[in-house]
Amino acid sequence: MSELHKFIFDGLPVRGMVVRLTEAWQEILRRRAGNTATGAYPPPVRELLGEMAAAGVLMQGNIKFNGALVLQIFGDGPIKVAVAEVQPDLSLRATATVVGEVPHAAALSQMVNVNNQGRCAITLDPKDRLPGQQAYQGVVPLFGDRREPLEKLSDVLEHYMLQSEQLDTTLVLAADEQVAAGLLIQRLPVQGANNLGGRATAAGSDAMQAAQGRGSDASSPVAGTRANEDEIGLNEHYNRIAILAKSLKREELLTLDVDTILRRLFWEEPVLRFEPLAGETGPRFACSCSRERVGRMIRSLGVEEAEGILAERGHIEVGCDFCGQQYHFDPVDAAQIFTAPGAQPSVGPVVH
What we know:
Elements: E1 3-9, E2 14-21, H1 23-33, H2 43-61, E3 67-74, E4 79-86, E5 91-98, H3 108-112, E6 119-126, E7 136-141, H4 153-165, E8 169-175, E9 180-187, H5 196-202, H6 207-212, H7 221-231, H8 236-246, H9 250-255, H10 258-266, E10 271-273, E11 277-278, E12 284-285, H11 291-301, H12 303-313, E13 316-319, E14 326-329, H13 331-339
Parallel strand pairs: 5-12
Antiparallel strand pairs: 1-2, 1-10, 1-11, 2-9, 3-4, 3-6, 4-5, 6-7, 8-9, 13-14
């Protein structure tokens, strides 16, 4: 069962999380592999997308925000775009658009950052938007301070947190065909709201104002930002714990249970753990596509268009662009769409 474990270090300004996506990740891969138009992801793409899914859950679990967290990687390589979307209830979906040959064991730069033009975007999209309210989005390049290409997603996201949120963050990510997993260690923010959680609450028409930090009192965003910035790289407790976290090997993250991981890494540290999130409260796959929604889309095409497709192909097949699930309608299925009660044509196609 997929699970998210949160913990803090008692008396220290450090928090952490471990996520293990099992059946949720396997369902994403199963749908993609079952799509006759695309086929399964090449192993390097699968690894990148799994790491993105795990990172998305860690970042969503790290903030209080009633909306979707969308992590995107895009650039000029054979992967046009890769997306992981995590809802506030930790339901998730992920997809990648592959437009060219992906080399075996390709690094991040080979997949999406061939000419060092790749970008990583993190979007916080409020569920119930107020009038004029917009999503908050932060975008960073896929290179470091010296314009050197970053070859690991964890390096990109650590760089993002340091640049955008002024927070020391350590990430260890890994994925294979069975598990997508991640460990996050983060220095707790100093007083102030100008971090990812603070921006989540401010995401909207006043998000930029909050991000720029109006005011100068000790609890203002700008004061919090300066205090956070002053602490970067200097907290000895965080630095010690981060070194321990970085010693976690990929194979250990993928194969060991969370209890064993935390015991091996932090057996001398004062770890306080919270109740794990699993099952209905934990990470799980969910996509908004459905056979009913696809049926409404077909109905919106009109009878003549649908009959033309059936005459040419013998069936109508529609795949979800996000999760890869394919929906098959034979002539009998199509006839039922147009003869069902209330089957008047829709205004337009359904977006899923």
